[in-house]
Amino acid sequence: xxxxxxxxxxxxxxxxxxxxxxxxxxxxxxxxxxxxxxxxxxxxxxxxxxxxxxxxxxxxxxxxxxxxxxxxxxxxxxxxxxxxxxxxxxxxxxxxxxxxxxxxxxxxxxxxxxxxxxxxxxxxxxxxxxxxxxxxxxxxxxxxxxxxxxxxxxxxxxxxxxxxxxxxxxxxxxxxxxxxxxxxxxxxxxxxxxxxxxxxxxxxxxxxxxxxxxxxxxxxxxxxxxxxxxxxxxxxxxxxxxxxxxxxxxxxxxxxxxxxxxxxxxxxxxxxxxxxxxxxxxxxxxxxxxxxxxxxxxxxxxxxxxxxxxxxxxxxxxxxxxxxxxxxxxxxxxxxxxxxxxxxxxxxxxxxxxxxxxxxxxxxxxxxxxxxxxxxxxxxxxxxxxxxxxxxxxxxxxxxxxxxxxxxxxxxxxxxxxxxxxxxxxxxxxxxxxxxxxxxxxxxxxxxxxxxxxxxxxxxxxxxxxxxxxxxxxxxxxxxxxxxxxxxxxxxxxxxxxxxxxxxxxxxxxx
Length: 511
Ligand SMILES: Cc1cc2nc3c(=O)[nH]c(=O)nc-3n(C[C@H](O)[C@H](O)[C@H](O)COP(=O)(O)OP(=O)(O)OC[C@H]3O[C@@H](n4cnc5c(N)ncnc54)[C@H](O)[C@@H]3O)c2cc1C
Ligand code: FES
Known about the structure:
There is one protein chain. The protein has 4 domains: 3-104, Rieske Iron-sulfur Protein (3-layer Sandwich), CATH 2.102.10.10; 119-225 and 355-419, FAD/NAD(P)-binding domain, CATH 3.50.50; 239-352, FAD/NAD(P)-binding domain; 438-507, Enolase-like, domain 1 (2-Layer Sandwich). Helix 4 (268-279) links the parallel strand 20 and strand 21. 18% of the residues lie in helices and 34% in strands.
């Protein structure tokens, strides 16, 4: 191992990291007073340059999806990253020169937990993977079975409607969620199987092949299934929904450049898919119930800017419409709208919402949308926890369910820790990102009401940050091209935030 001199102490800011070369390695220096620590410079989640994030209250927050790490140890604090940062030795010598070693230190290994309970994690998507990573990081691994019905689960499904449909990422190269080491020492028992029944009283599951498994503690993370509307022609060939890698593979077989597709649904999945299929060279019709998409979540001005972005890229918009029927001889050929307009198509993609995947769970109370109802620690019964799209949890005196990747992972981590004996309450601020035509939109919080939207920048220029406020309090924040301010707010919004303080923080956080 060789040490290299890389900076002087007084050259290093404290509100952000500094990227330096150390021999063949690229390293991020984090300064706190007279101390400097060195970590890998790219985020272990999707490779964001961490020097573009912020350092706030002892955490380094990633600019892209707001994963967070402890500044003093590199330990993971918030997903979507699921591993700690690699750390490098630092030595501050005479003249305040900072020397850094060119090889990472060996990662800390958690002492094994003496827990021999039979633990089941069911579902290997966002929440399940985060739960398994947490159980392993906490030293549990003795008797862990992880079940999913997909052949190769635990991949980043958010890439499907962005890069895979666009033809920018082959389905086989969608990033895996866990590093290979997580599966080893002690090994996880991975089972490809569909769970047909779960009896919380007897603590037993029944698999589709008739096998029964008993458990002492289980964590449910089966997500949600896309809904197919009950309309004539929905069973024709060429009609798709998008949730899994296999769904994307099937869709791509037909979605060749020049083909005509109707995307039905103007929520995030529909909008992302429309954008990706335009990039791929298809003619895209977007059929949405609303005159302005996302108006309910983001307000009129931002929703209109999203619609304009799609239209600028050639999407043919059919606002305020629903698909009444699909017509074709074996293969879909036309969509008939509720205003009787007929659209000639080669394929149809529905993105009209999901149903929580809870049908296999016996005897537990459900919310109106079919989700399981958890307490604030995400327990749904004795010895049973649930996380992600399948669960509602208490928030501000009501029950809510959120379909966001990072929330599912935060819940998976928290539920896993509670399963191991902690008593944590879930109260994180939801964060969501979406992506159309190379523009990332970020959303923090979940505004149910607002009486004013304060803008910095212009949504129509796709460079803005908007505070959705009720009275003087910020309910949620929406932004394009403000990754550092959003990183800081992702942490600060854990507590109530006034409009004036939010503006001060935004002005004090240059991008
Ligand atoms: C195409 C797409 C793009 C998205 N993009 C974004 C985005 O950009 N940002 C964002 O925040 N969110 C995004 N989302 C939403 C996000 O992916 C979900 O909120 C998140 O995946 C929920 O995680 P989960 O673990 O609850 O469910 P999932 O990730 O769906 O995982 C559930 C797993 O359970 C398995 N399973 C289900 N039932 C059974 C059973 N009976 N037996 C065995 N296994 C079972 C499934 O095979 C699956 O692997 C996107 C969703 C989709 C579909
Ligand atoms: S790249 Fe850092 S959290 Fe996604």
